[in-house]
Amino acid sequence: MKQCTNCGVELEENANYCSLCGTLLPDKSHEPQPLEKTESAIREEKLYSDYQRFTPFQKRKMFWSISIFILISGIVISLLVDLVGNQAITWSKYPITVSMILFFNISLNTFLRKHIPLLLALSFLSVAGLFVLFGLYTGINGWDMKLGLPLLLATYLTFFLLISLIRRSKQKGLNVIAWTLIVAGFLCVYTEGMISIFLQKTLSFGWSLIVLVSVAIISSLLLYIHYRLKKATDLKRFFHI
Hints:
This protein is mostly helical. It has helices at residues 39-52, 56-86, 93-111, 116-138, 143-168, 174-200, 207-229, 235-238; strands spanning 2-3, 10-11. Helix 2 packs antiparallel against helix 3, helix 4 (116-138) runs antiparallel to helix 5 and helix 6 (174-200) packs antiparallel against helix 7.
């Protein structure tokens, strides 16, 4: 038997209003029924929940395994297309070399994540080797030692400095963004200076100084908010994530 939601009196099953107080009764025949999950949806949900239970190292190792498959596939396809089209290894040596360097750096990030100095040193040597190989491939000698390697070394050193600053910070927030902008600004100045010396044989600056001044202003504001006002310094809360 139905019951009135207002007065509680018992009613007939097919009644659509209360005969005592006149309250309209909800029509349950039109209420949306819960959709049954398909087998594919259940499998996807289980797969996602299993992935969430992985440790950070297991997730990195899974990404490493997928990267191996993708990079090896790219190497094989590039090599076969080059051999079929040119009867020799010509342009394919460039994507093959880049793929091997990428694989090496992904492996470093997977297995040496906790050893940052060693990771950066090996990564620098691998990318430096890439520059040297490209110089040999193209027949243009000198640019890798005079321009490529100094810029690469400066990039790795600034990246190492940034990581050190972040690790030593007790409270990470807007100060991380500020340091990143400052480091990027000085790296732009160094890059423009090295390019001007290599191309014009003289030291000159232009756009990089504008970038440095701009990021210095923004970084000063971010550091003031972080260290003085002590508000909105948590990145997750600041960006609502």
